[in-house]
Design a protein that fits this description.
The protein is an alpha+beta fold. It contains 6 helices and 7 strands; from the N terminus they run βαααβββαβαββα. This is GNAT family N-acetyltransferase.
């Protein structure tokens, strides 16, 4: 099913946008504003990676800011899977790529997950991410974000 995980190109922007806007993340965080320009900048900055199938269709993507946490540690800004292929292990593959390839030179990685996104939080916990704090109303009024991290010894 997965052919490759690679840096996103400009040609991937529209499909990444579609996948995001059809997701729960899109509904909650971007119902009243478009993330298109932000995503375009993420592609230009080489922060977005796409997971492609054999037909070069995007199955999902992740967005990583290498100095996004405390200007020192990688931050997983978002991971989004196409609604047609959720539950097939693509999120785990993208997370593995994030941990083992993209951030291989770091001893800690961080992410935040909204309290509404119970499935994602459960996945992160299964993969040894630990909650280190909660931030109410950080990205969106009424949504509490769980700040989570994982140390290198649990990645290897």
């Amino acid at each position: 099913m997965i052919k490759v995980i690679e840096l996103a190109k400009n040609q991937h922007l529209d499909n990444c946008y579609r996948i995001l806007m059809q997701s729960q993340l899109g509904e909650v965080y971007f119902a009243d504003k478009s993330p298109m320009k932000m995503m375009q900048k993420g592609i230009e900055n080489k922060e977005i990676y796409v997971c492609l199938n054999q037909q070069d269709e995007i199955l999902g993507f992740l967005w990583v800011e290498l100095s996004g946490t405390f200007d020192k540690y990688p931050y997983l800004h978002m991971i989004v899977i196409d609604e047609n292929v959720r539950g097939k292990g693509i999120g785990k593959k993208l997370l593995s790529h994030f941990e083992e390839v993209i951030t291989s030179d770091y001893d800690k990685v961080f992410l935040m997950v909204g309290d509404f996104n119970k499935r994602a939080k459960r996945l992160y916990e299964e993969l040894d991410y630990k909650v280190v704090g909660m931030i109410p109303n950080f990205y969106k009024e009424g949504v509490t974000e769980y700040l989570m991290y994982k140390t290198k010894d649990t990645i290897e």
